[in-house]
Inverse folding.
């Protein structure tokens, strides 16, 4: 699904030098390169504060802790996402409130958010799924009307732009009260281990997030808050600092591959290609087809024989997961999410796809689909 080795080979000298510098200085935790990377990312995102942490799941947890959400508070999010989005809500004793998604973008549906708000609702977590932004104009308006926090899960959409109705352009993750991202190796901006970060333009929240991610400390050994140990190590920061200047180039390569897929599948009624939302550019963390009257498992097996991986993101919606079963939700409650879970299939999508590979993938898909 990704080709990290080929990507590494293209910038091997830069990466090796950056890693060696960390080893030479032995500043492995909170070394200077962590702060340098944070500053570079702040400039790229045009956001006041980037707070690095250990992974994207921790970023979501630190965000909710920093917003001082209390046990029993309701947090609205989508049922069509990776489990981490709801996992941290549950771990903190908050109540996850799941809603349906838009059938075209796969992102959280603003109308469903409105219907789910109660006096206990305190926050909304929109997930910018597969590489394009949710409808942040509508979400921020809803949040303003009901005095709710917005925590953007931008783990799959770093580098994506959102084009607001007022004519401004903002990076995904920088519009709400706080944004969160993951630097897992397969992400569009990935390190060589685990990593994550929070983004905010709020000075007080930034201070709270930094403290919580470092055991609740502002001054060493003085603990003002209950915190966690969640730090981006210096070697991962060095990798990310090296890769960040290539991020737009990586996004362009993904879009080029997506354009090839789109053209190849354009006239096949059994294959619905990703809809590109007019309010966001798509950085294609995943390229996800919707299949119609196609044996998905059979197609997956056919592609595997041809040496082509294909993944299902996500086969079981959150409201149907055993760990998150709740009397409030039944099968059939979220028809769009449930239909997607039975029809989506993601093809290889990364920066190193060449025309020969794309031709092989598309011809193999069409050979089976007909």
């Amino acid at each position: 699904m990704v080709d990290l080795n080929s990507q590494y080979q293209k910038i091997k000298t830069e990466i090796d030098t950056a890693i060696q510098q960390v080893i030479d200085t032995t500043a492995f935790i909170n070394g200077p390169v962590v702060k340098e990377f944070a500053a570079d990312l702040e400039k790229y995102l045009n956001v006041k504060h980037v707070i690095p942490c250990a992974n994207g799941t921790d970023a979501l947890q630190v965000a909710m802790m920093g917003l001082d959400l209390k046990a029993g508070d309701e947090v609205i999010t989508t049922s069509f996402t990776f489990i981490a989005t709801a996992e941290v809500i549950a771990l903190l004793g908050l109540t996850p409130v799941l809603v349906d998604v838009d059938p075209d973008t796969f992102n959280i549906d603003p109308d469903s958010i409105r219907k789910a708000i109660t006096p206990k609702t305190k926050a909304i977590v929109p997930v910018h799924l597969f590489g394009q932004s949710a409808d942040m104009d509508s979400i921020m308006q809803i949040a303003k009307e009901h005095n709710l926090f917005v925590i953007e899960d931008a783990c799959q959409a770093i580098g994506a732009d959102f084009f607001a109705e007022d004519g401004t352009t903002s990076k995904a993750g920088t519009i709400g009260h706080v944004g969160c991202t993951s630097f897992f190796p397969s992400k569009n901006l990935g390190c060589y281990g685990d990593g994550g970060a929070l983004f905010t333009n709020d000075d007080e929240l930034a201070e709270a997030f930094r403290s919580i991610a470092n055991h609740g400390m502002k001054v060493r050994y003085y603990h003002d808050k209950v915190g966690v140990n969640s730090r981006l190590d210096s070697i991962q920061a060095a990798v990310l600092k090296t890769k960040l200047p290539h991020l737009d180039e990586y996004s362009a390569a993904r879009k080029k591959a997506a354009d090839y897929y789109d053209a190849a599948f354009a006239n096949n009624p059994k294959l619905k290609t990703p809809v590109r939302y007019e309010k966001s550019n798509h950085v294609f963390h995943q390229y996800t087809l919707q299949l119609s009257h196609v044996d998905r498992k059979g197609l997956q097996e056919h592609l595997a024989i041809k040496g082509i991986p294909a993944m299902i993101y996500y086969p079981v919606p959150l409201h149907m997961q055993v760990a998150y079963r709740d009397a409030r939700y039944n099968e059939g409650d979220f028809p769009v999410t449930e239909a997607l879970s039975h029809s989506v299939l993601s093809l290889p999508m990364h920066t190193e796809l060449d025309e020969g590979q794309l031709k092989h993938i598309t011809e193999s898909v069409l050979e089976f689909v007909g």
The mean pLDDT is 97.
